[in-house]
Amino acid sequence: MTQTSTPFPDGFLWGASTAGHQIEGNNTNSDWWHKEHSGTAQIQEPSLDAADSYHRWPEDMDLLAGLGFTDYRFGIEWARIEPVPGRFSRAELAHYRRMVEGAVVRGLRPMVTLHHFTVPRWFEERGGWTEPDAPDLFARYVAATAPVIGTDVAHVCTINEPNMIAVMAGAARAGDAGFPPAGLPTPDEETTRAIIAAHRAAMKEVRGINPRIKAGWTIANQVYQALPGAEEVRDAYRYPREDVFVEAARDDDWIGVQSYTRTRIGPDGPIPVPPEAERTLTGWEYYPRAVGHALRHTASIVGDVPLIVTENGIATADDTRRIAYYTGALDEVGAAIEDGLDVQGYLAWSALDNYEWGSYTPTFGLIAFDPETFARTPRPSAHWLGGFGRTRRIPRTSG
């Protein structure tokens, strides 16, 4: 096996990602906090203190910068900023502004996510995304974030994985909070339309805050692979779950590509993962090549819109498998760049072990934390992956 490398393109983002609710702790005004404490069957445990990153963000940023990363994607919580309708917390806006400034001081370029699955409880209780004024309410919140993102923030993500928001809404409307044995539930069409409208309204607000900000959103790519003869079935299945959201990014400054595994499609639809396949702690098939397929498919839809890998990683208790996964994934990223795709960044999921929407069992983190003391421990994979930020080259293997 031959070891090679691909140089980073100019300005390439090299970092790790997190989401506010998953690491901050005690996001008590959010819809998710309410779900966690309402006896929902799919939620095994509540988030509670999470990794206490609300208070310990300086330590987290120190670690990432020290490891060699140059970029950090983190979320700001709508539920903290607007805890009641139309009332904005100056203290919370100042908190998130300190995070932006703290990242810059440490040599980390901040990418700020405005919405990462959670909304204020009041927003959910009044009907959520399908209320007629939901896009306007989201735009009002985005406008209020001007003190946070107005300076020093080059990249803003409006909404994380809008296709999964629509999928979950579809599952809820069908009265089934679970997922089928393979594939995803049918997305709710009304939510799809609303979330695209909210994104477009948010893009307008971000550009009004500072036209130099590069804004976009991130899509969960399931890497739908058709068995011979099932191409039309695949395309019809994929469109409402993914492609309609990718199409909505054609006028954006960039699009985030997020992938972890693949979904094979046969004549009758999705095919379960074979029993003999290696699985991760989330039950997904171990498939490092997913990100390459996701990049190429996304590029085929958006044309010349720049691509950023905003999430990619693996939930595992074996860090050697994490390094092996990233090795295979980075082969794909490097190959895509060498083939001429405009890939402008790679951010691993995730910087820290975190609350994976119902459980702390799936450990995605490059950095582990002790739930009692909150002490952080970078794994070998963190040193390995972060180190390429110093060489400014993407590792490649061949042969």
From TrEMBL:
Keywords: Glycosidase, Hydrolase
Catalytic residue positions: 311 (nucleophile)
Pfam family, any one: Glyco_hydro_1
UniProt KW Mitochondrion keyword: no
Record-linked InterPro entries: GH (IPR017853), Glyco_hydro_1 (IPR001360), Glyco_hydro_1_AS (IPR018120)
GO molecular function: beta-glucosidase activity
EC number: 3.2.1.21
Similarity remark: Belongs to the glycosyl hydrolase 1 family.
Protein name: beta-glucosidase
